[in-house]
Specification:
This protein has about 100 residues and is mainly beta. It contains one helix and six strands; from the N terminus they run ββββββα. It has a four-stranded mixed beta sheet with strand order 1-2-4-3.
């Protein structure tokens, strides 16, 4: 688990813990864990996502996103996109937030 994340006793399986602060940020662990936290904002909700590696961030034209054919995390993956010559999964922030 990433340094700084505090465990929450009795939290659901998808909750890695919280990052202390004002306000504290709940961190999800739905992608198999990791040591980095991506901070996401969805409307007035801020939360973190524990990931193993961040290889980069990019803007994607919504028209370039293709339907996901098969994915281990298909409940949180809404599509795929070609990024830098490689296939990348597109996470659905609403599906992630629903796990809080």
């Amino acid at each position: 688990m990433s340094a700084g994340i505090r465990a929450v006793p009795g939290a659901g399986a998808d909750i890695a813990g919280v990052l202390p602060g004002e306000p504290a940020v709940t961190v999800l662990s739905v992608l198999g864990g990791g040591t980095h936290v991506l901070i996401l904002e969805l409307a007035d909700l801020t939360f973190g996502l524990l990931v193993g590696t961040v290889t980069g961030l990019c803007l994607v034209d919504p028209g370039e996103i293709r339907a996901v054919v098969s994915a281990a995390h298909s409940t949180v993956v809404s599509g795929t996109v070609q990024a830098g010559g490689a296939l990348a999964f597109v996470a659905d922030p609403r599906a992630l937030a629903a796990r809080l």
